[in-house]
Amino acid sequence: MKQDNLSAKHNPDWALFLPAVSSFYIAGLGKQRKGQNYFDQARIPASFNGDVEKLNFLNSREGLYYYKWGLYSAGHANLDTTVDDPSESIIREREEGTFMLGDSGGFQILKGQWPADWKDPNCPRAEETQSSIEVDGYIYGLWYVFRYPKSITNYVRHER
Fold first, then answer.
1. How many domains in the chain?
2. Within its chain, how far is the Cα of 138 from the centroid?
3. 124 and 95 co-located in one domain
């Protein structure tokens, strides 16, 4: 099968689309690529030769299609990057030149799944969580709005 390189088709005059990557999707692919036979072989198309890496759109060499940009929610991620987590390998071990924007996990904050006093700029638990969602050198998202509400116009990109 010929690969469809969607990244090469992107026109710089267009808005950049960042597809939200499903945690279920990357967990299945990651576990399978690490030898954990996550998928029933009978459900994998014969033309794949048992290799679901063809579904990894961040893989420019093997993916059926290649798109180098994505969005991944910190609310679904294993934030402990010191632990080898096969379910995160698609994100953590992606090839150079790809870009994954880390969504803040603001939904999890609003739902109380990440307990902390997000309005207190000195809350140690909030500081710990915010530092663990740093992706590609930047912090993005709602945690900034909660912590610095008067600076809402600057929340898109806050350099540490």
1. 2
2. 14
3. no
pLDDT per residue as tens digits for the range 27-68: 999 999 998 888 888 988 988 888 899 999 999 999 999 999
Q: 89-104, pLDDT tens digit by residue? A: 998 888 888 888 877 7
**66 Cβ neighbours under 8 A, 6+ residues apart:** 3, 4, 5, 6, 7, 57, 58, 59, 60
Distance, in Å, from the CA atom of 116 to the CA atom of 112, rounded to the nearest integer, reads 8
As given in the structure block, the two tokens for residue 137 are 């050198």
Statement to judge: residues 138 and 67 lie in one domain: no
What SS3 state is found at 158? strand
**85 and 14 part of one domain:** yes
Residue ranges making up the domain that contains 144: 110-160
What are the CA-CA distances from residue 125 to residues 15, 105, 118, 122, 133 (Å)?
A: 36, 15, 9, 9, 13
Task: Give the mean pLDDT of 111-123.
Answer: 80
* 9 and 78 co-located in one domain: yes
